[in-house]
Amino acid sequence: MPINVSFLVRNLPLFYEGAVVTIELSVLTIVIVMVWGLVIVTGRVSRLRLWRLLAGGYIQLVRNTPVLVQMYFIYFGLAMAGFGLSGFASGLLALSLQNGGYVAEIYRAGFESISMKQIEGAKALGMTRWSLLWLVVLPQAFVRVIPPLGNQLILIIKDTSLVSAIAVGELTQTGKLLSERTAATYEIFFTLAVFYLVMTSIVGGMVRLYERRFAIAH
Amino acid sequence: MGVDSGHPTVQLRNVSVRFGRMQVLKHVSLSIDRREVVVIIGRSGSGKTTLLRCINFLEEYDEGEIVVDGELIGYRTGPDGQRIRKSEREIAAARSNIGMVFQSYNLFPHMTVLRNIMAGPIHVRRMSRQEADAGARELLARVGLSDKVDEYPIKLSGGQQQRVAIARALAMQPKVMLFDEVTSALDPELVGEVLAVIKQLARDGMTMVVVTHEMQFARDIANRVVFIDEGVIVEQGQPRDLFSNPSSERLRAFLKRYREGYLL
Fold it and tell me: Among the CATH numbers 3.40.50.300, 1.20.120.1630, 1.10.443.10, 1.10.3720.10, which is that of A5-217?
């Protein structure tokens, strides 16, 4: 199959526009999710039963339903109930809610991988709960969390393509519209894949860089 | 340097610990004077490590009381005589005066040797960075590891890691040091360097409670040896008397097993 290169070059600005929206959505989601995950995990390991139950229930809820259904619910469902959000905001909300649950579980696995011996070592020095967490547990958990967290960030970037279903003009939506107007379906979706590949590779590379930088100490 | 029997540094009164249905310590009373070195021996599972861990409240005890340097550990007595658990902050403050060295070193792998030693003084004692740094270097010199200041623990041998762990505990200027089978995880050729550091501490007059399987070491270092079995102190006394003239059948059996197992 011959590739129509001039068509691609002509439409490249459109792809760029879509890519900008995808990047915006990805970066915002990633920032929110990393903080929100921390909030949830503090609930998950809290000494208060109510917080533990709420956080656990939340994770079950967001993890066991498809993110696309969550997006539809927020975009269409909430609009019916009188809380209309834009497509972008709905997508951001759904992606953040679901991935926040995943990231919280990644954080928790990181905390729990720190052995009791480390905690006793810190306690024996007279460290309080807070300095123990801050000086001993978090720095070690952080290093262990980098690889699975990186993985999750890549999933987030790919999942942003789902917001094309609620009329957000990001990369996938741009491709869909273009392919409806023209017959160059093959070229369009190939180009889309390359765009995603470039973005996820950049994030993947950054993660590996961090991993190596912090691994030296271990 | 002699033992100062003015008032005991550590005092256990009637301490009992249960793990579920098993009673690990049964009404144990023991007092340790200032500058005294008490070595606790016994089979594994006898309760000796539990006893040690109660002293800095890493193990919570169910009955009795423990006093270190005049302060009740873990609990206070309420107006009606009931036990009230002290706050996390109070418990942490009490621990900061009690040094502990673990079987598996428990150094912080993400900190250099120097940082490991400085962490307590800076974050618990609120000492200035310069002061903590100087103190840490001095302690490293004392345990013979001045050349390892900037290494990470993983780069050190087990014996070196354990000496760093001792320095880390000493940096808090503890009233008493607790040693929990600190040579059990070491290759035989590395045991000597760790024991030498502990012996020097004993000579310097540090109050110490030592749980060990090294009988020769116990004999060399102890002012008093305490033999514990099934959660009870069976016998105690000066190492000379205890080792050559055990009065209880249980200690005789323990020493016999030990000689057959390790010394032949």
Answer: 1.10.3720.10
